[in-house]
């Protein structure tokens, strides 16, 4: 675990009745809780790029700090409480596992603004924010479907966020390759390089053509590179897979973080439930590997533009669960409630949920 803070000078105090501990001539102190090491790729790395953009944008109006490798539970509550007790006026929990700890501390510090990524617990001083990552997952699934006939997924936890991603990748692949199939190995961790590698090797031993993952280390990409297979990654990890890394879903948290900090500084921060994707430039995909033919790129890029224009939804009907149950009727679009509570596999995914 590592803690880092940059001491800077001068800022505005929290508004909207969220006074925090800041005084009028002090910088706004902003704390980030990370579920894994920052590294140089992956989920936490992309959140930290947003934090760095805050420092570049606001300069001496703010001071940021982060704590790495906090998965959840008592450790997360301790870190969040420590930030709150030390006068931080805005605190971000960046992992699903931080939800309950952040909510508990937020209830005890009503004058501080809290934000939690990917959760569903909201309060007057606790906002939640998501990206529609399933859009980029659908696109990388299309790439996988045109570069192979099967995919092996190293998955973290069977929560709706992950199930949406598995299903979106499978649907994207099936849209271009009707014979495509997906295998899943669950490891109950967001970051465990050894376990990630073991799961990836097990999937490759079963003969899958392309790997994908919901974990934060480059272990799955390295497995694909070592075994001369392909991978679609979480975050641009091309440096770990010169030949294997086809593309990746990429998060862009910076615009959201800049907007929320500006609102605190302006005194206009309010709780919110934000869920945006490609159309708001909060999601995209990484540059293609040279191995990806131009015709594949053209098909995927065209689909991305349909998403940007709002003319295509990855889960538009007809959407069938693995058992044939109709989840979204033909011609219909899913509501966010169904997406946020997704608890099923679509057809094309093998096996059953744990």
Automatic annotation (TrEMBL):
Superkingdom per UniProt: Bacteria
Keywords assigned: Signal
Family matches, as Pfam families: Bmp (PF02608)
Signal sequence extent: 1-24
Signal in keyword set: yes
Residues in ABC transporter substrate-binding protein PnrA-like domain copies: 29-291
GO terms for cellular component: plasma membrane
Gene3D superfamilies assigned: 3.40.50.2300
Name of the protein in its database record: Nucleoside-binding protein
Species for this entry: Roseicitreum antarcticum
